[in-house]
Amino acid sequence: MKRGLIMNKLDNVATVLDDVAAGETVTIRGLPSIVEISTLEEIPRGHKIALVDIPVGMDVVKYGFPIGYALTDILKGSYVHVHNVGSKRTEE
Amino acid sequence: MKTLYGYRRPDGKVGFRNWTLVMPAVACVNHIAALIAKDIPGAVAVHHEVGCAQIGADYRQSLRTLLNTGLNPNVGAVLLVGLGCERVDPRELAEEIAASGKKVEFIVTQELGGTNATIEAGRKIVTDMSEQLAKIHPEEVPLSSIVLGVECGASDFSSSLSSNPVVGYVADTICANGGRAVLSETTEVIGTEEILTKRCASPETATKLVDRIKRMVEYSRSEDRDDIEGVAVPNNISPGNVRGGLTTIEEKSLGAISKGGYFCPIVGVVEYAELIGDRPGLWFMDSPGYDPECTTGLMACGSTLVLFTTGLGTPLGNPVTPIIKVTGNRVTAVRMRDDIDIDVSAVLEDGVSLESEAAVMLDTLIDVANGKQTRSEALGYRDFGITRIGPRL
């Protein structure tokens, strides 16, 4: 089983705790109910997966706080990292 | 809880090591200082790159760091080694450290006539100082006598999910018992102003903290970005952070501030290597995130123990204050076992609670305070670096 962890109920991304390949299912704990998400692409251990579709410009939320904004439309199950997330604090 | 023992110094402060410190007044005599301390039990030399050819704010900052290193309660006695023509005056520095009641002496290489004469004179003094200090026995002290520095380096996803919050619980415990903790790394609080200012004990402290963060943001924006695999990454996170899964400074900061606990108030903000005050609670030291400089600043501002979290693993140590390294990444705990003191990877791998790991960590912290060597102490690490403001002359 591939594992993921969500830190806050407001989050729209989770951290995957194992390396996952495209098409694999990640079982995400941290909410009252366990969420299962199918990945659209390879995601390395410790990196982030989108829990929902995140339209361009929208906040990417982890720990219940924005950690940046979507630079492109990010689909549910996508790999979320520097290629599709910008910092509000360093790129204004 | 285990009983805590410490060395009570003449000024009332409590240390957990009993060093005779050999401190060069200027980098030109670093090697002499190292040879003076070599193989004398209880003696340690600092190696630094300052003491001359600096002006203004940089000079004052360097001087403050050397002075406050001598004042750290983990140090019982100090020998200052001067060259004779440097800007830092070893005589003045000796007088200021001696005002704390510690035994302090100084020697000057140009007056003594070269390397060998200085080493011979220095070793005689340091041997005597160390023998005197060895007669002091540690006494039982309360948890409130701890000044705990918290720091993270080579962070990855595991830092924010496990090691940082566990350290935060320990910091809260120390502060709740009347002790002090010091959070720093101004770079790594960018984006958390709203959370931290709510914890500030006064509006003045909040304003000072926000001012320091603004200054760091402007600085990090002022230079071009590095390029990693075709993507321009922000200047304030490292290539290793990006490979480890951290995307933005906001993400890194939200994870980083959990080291400073969750409820203890932020009672003051100090400059790099400036002594913190007596008020119990969390202090913030304005500093870069760069590990050797940050830990040197934490030690100089008064930290007698440091909990240092690392995701990818780092070997860092300090000549005066024990650096206890913690990882929440099981791969790192195994691969970098030479350098890791505390493994909290059971949080992510086995679902062990943060609270129970914090209880174990507090016990280990007390063991180290009571004399157990950290990995970096056993390996002989003596990292000492002073941050810079302007150019060097």
UniProtKB/TrEMBL annotation, chain A:
<keyword id="KW-0456">Lyase</keyword>
<dbReference type="Pfam" id="PF08666">
    <property type="entry name" value="SAF"/>
</dbReference>
<dbReference type="GO" id="GO:0019698">
    <property type="term" value="P:D-galacturonate catabolic process"/>
</dbReference>
<feature type="domain" description="SAF">
    <location>
        <begin position="11"/>
        <end position="86"/>
    </location>
</feature>
<dbReference type="InterPro" id="IPR052172">
    <property type="entry name" value="UxaA_altronate/galactarate_dh"/>
</dbReference>
<dbReference type="InterPro" id="IPR013974">
    <property type="entry name" value="SAF"/>
</dbReference>
<protein>
    <submittedName>
        <fullName>D-galactarate dehydratase</fullName>
    </submittedName>
</protein>
<dbReference type="GO" id="GO:0016829">
    <property type="term" value="F:lyase activity"/>
</dbReference>
<dbReference type="InterPro" id="IPR044144">
    <property type="entry name" value="SAF_UxaA/GarD"/>
</dbReference>
